[in-house]
Write a structure and sequence with these properties.
single chain; 101 residues; mainly alpha; two-stranded parallel ribbon; 4 helices; 75% helix
Length: 101
């Protein structure tokens, strides 16, 4: 077993990093309507976890999880904003919302 693996095994993961990753994955799967809540949650959790990990001086792990969650949260926020814009344009042009299939 290498020394790097032993050191990484003793670090604790930042819980917000796991939250960001989970919210980002579920937000991508359920973009509408849950992405409106899960996207910002993943983005905020990922950024705050990244800050705590950097401030811990190497005691906390999960930087990759936090970054992945923040990126997925940003993607979900963008997709949700695009869907809201499409609904608004449909409401202005057609007088009704986009019908569900």
């Amino acid at each position: 077993m290498s020394d790097d693996f032993r050191v990484a095994a003793h670090k604790t993961y930042e819980p917000a990093a796991k939250t960001a990753l989970a919210a980002g994955i579920v937000g991508l799967l359920l973009v509408w309507p849950f992405g409106l809540l899960l996207g910002p949650l993943a983005l905020w959790s990922g950024i705050s976890a990244q800050r705590r990990i950097q401030a811990s001086g190497g005691k906390l792990a999960g930087s990759g999880l936090a970054m992945a969650g923040a990126v997925m949260g940003a993607v979900v926020c963008a997709l949700s904003a695009a869907l809201l814009l499409a609904e608004f344009i449909a409401l202005l042009l057609a007088g009704s919302l986009i019908p569900a299939p």
